[in-house]
Amino acid sequence: MLLYRIVREKHAYSLSASGFRNRWNEDGQYVLYTSDSRSLACLENLVHRSNSGHNSLFRIMVISMPDDLAVLEIAEEELPKQWKTDFCEECLQIGSKWYTREEYPVLKVPTSIIPNEWNYILNTRHRDFQKISLLRTEEFVFDKRL
User: What is the C-alpha separation between 52 and 131, in angstroms, rounded?
Assistant: First the structure.
């Protein structure tokens, strides 16, 4: 399976994570947020960057994940009604629990942007993370209309 991540060029050549808190992880939990399409990766960037910083040089990371890699999937029906808000304590708890248990290297979660689309969170500290690889990076320029 191919996954996609759009980042500033300086961060595009290795599968490394900052450890900063986000919707599905606490500070100090080293995860990579990826999407199952280039277009969703673009929309996630637009939402989280609030239209700032889109003039910088960006790259699309094309990441290969083996089809048989264990994935924990969270269905939208399992989440509270307010899960799409900027801060959702339940999402943070689910992701943090997934990360610390280290049973699955990948967490598949619904995106809050488009119904029936998915993001894949990769635990860089999991023993099976080494099976995931960066295939290549591609040029990416945000359309000025966005």
Answer: 34
Compute the distance between CA of residue 29 and CA of residue 22 in angstroms, rounded to an integer.
10
Residue 100, sorted as left (phi over 0), alpha (psi -120 to 50) or beta, turns out to be alpha
Joined together, the tokens standing for residue 113 give: 């942007």
Q: What is the pLDDT of residues 87-115, one digit of tens each?
A: 889 999 999 999 999 999 999 999 999 99
- For the stretch 123-136, pLDDT in tens is 999 999 999 999 99
Edge-to-edge strand list for the sheet holding 106-110:
71-73, 106-110, 118-123, 31-35, 2-8, 58-64, 133-140
107 backbone dihedrals φ, ψ, rounded to 5°: -115, 120
Amino acid letter, residue 116? N
Q: Is the pTM above the cut of 0.90? A: yes
